[in-house]
Predict the structure.
Amino acid sequence: MTRAAIRSALTVLGICLIGAEIAAAAEQPPASPFRFSGEVRGELTDNRDFVDQGRESDFDLFFTPRVTAGLHPGRSILEVHYAPSLRYRANPSDTENDAVLFHDFGLHLEHAPITQIKLRLRESLYYTADPRIEEGGAAVRANNSYLWNRVEAGVIYQFPTTPHMDLDAHVSDVIKRYDDDTVAEQYDEDVVEGGLQVLRQLRETIAAKAIGRVVDYGYREIADVATRDFTVLIAALGMDKNFTPKVRGGFALGWASANYKNDALGADDGPYGEITIRGELQPDKRVDVALSHSMRDSDAYPYPSQEFTELSTRGEWGALNAKVIVGLQGVYRLGNYDTEFASGGVNYAAGDDTTVVLAADVAVKVGNQGTVKFIQKFEDVSSDVRLPYTKNTSSLAYQVAF
């Protein structure tokens, strides 16, 4: 099935599910579905452009209103949000605007036509005239206009068997489109993914799972430059365990295979793995730890892909009856670009790309509806395949719900 056909199918499915949701909502008693909130945030950094030489400090001020509409009739959930964000930059570069408008739109829909089947649809749309993209907390590409859209449709089917067993299938489509032609040639991207997971309960707190996934990465075709498109196939087996009613962990081990459209690259195989622990250790303490290893798209042009290992952690502690919440977060990611190849008459050697992000935050509730939050973040990127940099960022925000 082509990418265009997948997008058309997702659009039709979305229209059908939203229609069913609205029809169900019409049968419920009227109530206001709208919730409003807002944020004012100041952000100070010592490295505006994510560079190693010629660093420029900067101060940004963000104004972000947000409206959320939610309907929950019967066995259905429909939530839509929109959050425009106006950013004022005190020290823009020669290619930037001092005032920029961001857009953030999202849709989440769940519908259970019968008890054993749950359908879901998620849509995320983000556009800004002067953005940066962040993955794992560190900037991947800095300050280039782009449109990012992701839509996912999925279904969970619960088998009428004992012990419990269910199947979760999904398909998603992601597009990235940059306004600047030079940047677009390097980083425009389409990602289509299809996945399947079967989970079978072995004991009350233990379940076995099987995972299969196909991810197709497509880049813009450039004259005289070798194509970078490729497809990753993933197969894995694992287990999930509920350590307590509020703490869940799991692992999956398997194999990933990347098949390149460029015959000169052939195929690349490697292990796949993931380990996660998430939940509330105590009512005022929460932990989130994830370790993963696989293959994915590249963060460095013109390499097509990377084999990566990533460890991400976050802990939260509450105090004074949860009026104060302290958080610590860390990300370590190692990307291996171990495929030597030639493109556009240039030979590109193998190399590593290492990202470290450390952050601490404190949130203090003010009254019944307000929160003041301070975040301090440190980023360090050392790389053989792209420009390295270090960056410190301090931000202070006031959030309020109406």
User: Anything to note?
Assistant: Residues 3-284 form a domain with the Maltoporin; Chain A fold (CATH 2.40.170.10). The chain has a mean pLDDT of 88.
